[in-house]
Amino acid sequence: MASEADLTNALAKIPEVPVASNFTARVMAAIELEEAAAARNRGWNWRLLWPRVAVAAAVLIFAGVSGQRFETNSQRVALAKNVASVAVAQPLPSVEALNNFDAIQRMSQHADDQLIALMQ
Predict the structure, then answer these.
(1) Quick one: pLDDT at residue 67?
(2) In b/e form, how buried is each residue of 81-104, taking b as 16+ CB within 10 angstroms?
(3) Residues 6+ apart with CB under 8 A from 97
(4) For the segment 91-105, what is each residue's pLDDT rounded down to a tens digit?
(5) Which residues touch 73 (CB under 8 Å, ≥6 apart)?
(6) Helix (H, G, I), strand (E, B), or coil: what is residue 115?
(7) Which residues contact residue 26 at a Cβ distance below 8 angstroms, ignoring those fewer than 6 apart?
(8) To which H or E segment does residue 41 belong?
(9) Among the four 7, 16, 112, 117, which has the fewest Cβ within 10 Å?
């Protein structure tokens, strides 16, 4: 309580400052200026919006490219597994078949020509 009494006494000793004759008008003008600035800030502020739009677009593009690369990699892995399973399932040709590869290839070409001729 003593500090409040000291504060009251100190404030009482401060001399009265004369106020300008247009003080009220100046205060009202400052209030109107602040209200106008606040009204402007409530609308779309494109200078603040563009960086946010750019960051959002960059994030979306990065996510899209990452997703596409993941999907491509998944397809490659699946293809490799399929090729590996086919390679294991198919027996290797015998040595005799590989020795006669040219003859077998000529026979299949001749059979294809006959098949084409029959279809026409």
Answers:
(1) 97
(2) eeeeeeeeeeeeeeeeeeeeeeee
(3) 104
(4) 777 777 677 777 777
(5) none
(6) helix
(7) 20
(8) helix 23-42
(9) 16
CA-wise closest residue to 68 among 76, 41, 45: 76
> 27: which 2 tokens?
């205060």
Amino acid at 113: D
- What count of Cα atoms within 13 Å lies in the side-chain half-sphere of residue 111? 6
Answer whether 36's CB lies under 8 Å from 42's CB: no
- What's the chain's Rg over C-alpha atoms? 45
> Residue 21, exposed/middle/buried by CB under 10 A (0-12, 13-18, 19+)?
exposed
pLDDT of residue 36: 86
C-alpha 118/C-alpha 35 separation (Å) is 92
- The residue type found at 66 is S
Q: What is the DSSP string of 46-83?
A: HHHHHHHHHHHHHHHHHHHHHHHHHHHHHHHHHHHHHH
